[in-house]
Design goal:
The chain is an alpha/beta fold. The chain has 2 domains: 3-78, Arc Repressor Mutant, subunit A (Orthogonal Bundle); 113-276, Glucose-6-phosphate isomerase like protein, domain 1 (Rossmann fold, 3-Layer(aba) Sandwich), CATH 3.40.50.10490. The protein contains 13 helices and 5 strands. The protein has a 5-stranded parallel β-sheet with strand order 2-1-3-4-5, with helices on both faces. Strand 3 (182-186), helix 11 and strand 4 form a beta-alpha-beta unit. It is globular. InterPro entries: Homeodomain-like_sf, HTH_RpiR, RpiR-like, RpiR-like_SIS, SIS_dom, SIS_dom_sf, WH-like_DNA-bd_sf. Keywords: DNA-binding, Transcription, Transcription regulation.
Length: 289
């Protein structure tokens, strides 16, 4: 269980000062908890006794154990492929890769969906269905493929959807970002500086930020109106994007259904264009036709 999970699971049993401390920890996670207990208490305007009491409520023996758990998460957040493989390699079950990999991937997908707040999901879909909001989508070195997948579907569903290019030219696109537009950012460990910068610039222009990230959460979450965290760790040197893809496909399906009348018109026009360009082969069509 992540440190944040342990902390938030006991929120209802916390005193007002403990909830105030929890807010400080979550707002600047994990950095807020890596200093001394005195520094944390001062930042949250509570006593060191309050810090110790809250940690005991959440299952930690004390501040040193809490910090050790935080440092472990930081290590996971910045892990490269070799470190990820080493983590799994010493504890792999003796079964075929088809079983052990797929079982973990399916477990990731289930846990990711189970942790999504349906109200927050619906709020995101409301944003994406609003014709007065333009949508900008960005991803990184790996998540850029998912960003393009989401873009292709949303662009078929509604107008005013842009995919920010994975190059410095995205600065030109940001000139058009205005208040109440939506930036969808995909960012997983090791969290890319360019994606964070895009988020910061769009936030300064008063756009709504939507973040798709992993269980450790990209730094962009401090700017985001909506954050969706997926489980991505699998027995491999590389993380799995399957849970993020599943979540995005749920969103695509819901937005498409809400806007179906206009989606049908756009789809009909697109199919006519496909016919004219002969993009797809027709059944029974010969190679020479």
């Amino acid at each position: 269980m992540r440190v944040t999970d342990r902390l938030t699971a006991h929120r209802d049993k916390m005193t007002p000062s403990e909830r105030q401390l929890l807010g400080v920890l979550l707002d600047d996670y994990p950095m807020a908890g890596l200093g001394s207990i005195t520094e944390l208490a001062g930042t949250a305007s509570v006593s060191t006794t309050t810090v110790a009491r809250m940690l005991q409520k959440t299952g930690f023996d004390g501040y040193p154990q809490f910090q050790a758990a935080l440092r472990g998460e930081v290590k996971e957040m910045i892990s490269g492929p070799e470190a990820k493989r080493d983590l799994w390699q010493n504890d792999l079950p003796e079964e075929h890769i088809l079983n052990r990999y797929s079982q973990q991937t399916l477990a990731n997908q289930k846990r990711t969906i189970d942790e999504v707040d349906p109200t927050e999901f619906d709020s995101l879909c409301n944003l994406l269905c609003d014709p007065n909001r333009r949508i900008f989508i960005t991803g990184g070195r790996i998540t850029g493929t998912l960003a393009q997948y989401l873009y292709l579907h949303l662009q078929m569903i509604r107008p005013d959807v842009r995919l920010l290019p994975f190059a410095a030219s995205w600065t030109h696109d940001l000139l058009d970002v205005r208040k109440d537009d939506v930036l969808i950012a995909l960012d997983v460990r090791r969290y890319e500086n360019s994606t964070l910068l895009i988020g910061q610039l769009c936030h300064e222009r008063e756009a709504e930020i939507v973040l798709f990230t992993d269980q450790w959460r990209s730094p962009i979450h401090r700017l985001a109106k909506h954050t969706f965290a997926a489980r991505i760790a699998v027995p491999s040197a590389w993380d799995s994007m399957a849970a993020l893809l599943t979540l995005m496909e749920c969103i695509i399906a819901e937005v498409q259904e809400r806007l179906w009348d206009s989606v049908k018109e756009r789809t009909d026009e697109l199919e006519q264009a496909f016919d004219r360009t002969k993009l797809f082969r027709k059944f029974g069509q010969s190679s020479g036709s």
